[in-house]
Amino acid sequence: MHHRQFRGFRAIGLARGSAGTRGPGGFAGIVVVLALAIWAVTRQEHSSPAPRVTPAPVAVAPRPHAVIPLPETEQRLCTAVAILVDTSGSMRDAVQDHDGRPRPKSDIAKEALARILEHTSQWQQANPDRVLQIGVSSFSSSVSPVLPMAPFDAKSVPDALQRLPRPAGGTAIGRALQVAFQSLYQSGCVRKYVVCITDGQNTSGPPADRVARQLYAQTAGEVELHFVAFDTSAGYFDFLNAVNGFAVEAADAPQLQQRLTDIYEKRILAEAMPAEKED
Question: Which residue range(s) make up the domain with 248?
Fold first, then answer.
C-alpha cells in the first residue's frame, strides 16, 4: 500500500512539474535560458579575432633621375678634354714606380699627368691650326678644378699641378663626372673626352653609374669616357660599356704611363674629325 502511494506521489509530482513549466515561473526560466545562450554566442563573436586582411600591393612608379644641368653653348670644331684625378685617401697607398721602388699612387699619378701635359704642349706646337681645350679637376669627397677648361696654355701647367691636393677623403666619381661634362659643354667643342684616373669605387655622392647613364641619355653619347683603374679592377666600371666608355687597368707607374699614352696620344690627339681635316 505504501509502495503504491510512493509511486503515485512520484508520478503526480512529475506531472505537476511538467504542468508547472507552462506557468509563469516556467516561462521565465525559458526566457533566462535563451538570454544566456544569446549572451554566450555574442561574447564568442566579439572575443574571436577578426580575420586579417592583407592590403593589395600598391604599384610605385620608378623615380626618374633628375636632369643634370649642362651649358648650352654654340658648338664649333675643336677638341676638349676633361681630366679627372682621384685624390681620395687610398691614393696615399704605394705601388711600384718606374724604378721598382714603392711610391704613393698620388705622386705617380701627378707625374704621369705632367708627362701627358708636356706631350700636349709638343702636339700644340706641331698643330697650331687645331684648337685644344684642357681642364683638370681633382676629386675626393668633393671636386676641385685645378686647371679650368680653356685653350691649352703650357705656362699654366706647373701651377696647376701644384694645386693638386694631398690624398684624403672619399671617392666622388659621380660628382666628378658631372663637373667634367659641364666644363666640356661650356667649351663649345664638338669633340669631347673624359679621362679619369682612379683607384677605387664611388663612395661619396651620387653613384657613378647612375650619373653616367643620365648624362649619356641627355647628350646622346656625344662624350667619350676613358677610365684608368689604377691598382684596382676595371670590372668596377663595367657600366662604361653602355655609355660610350672604356676602362683599362694599371698596376704600377709604367703601366699607368702607358695606358694614358695609349688613350691620350694615340686616340684623343691622333683622331681628328673629317670636317677638321678638310679645314
Answer: 76-278
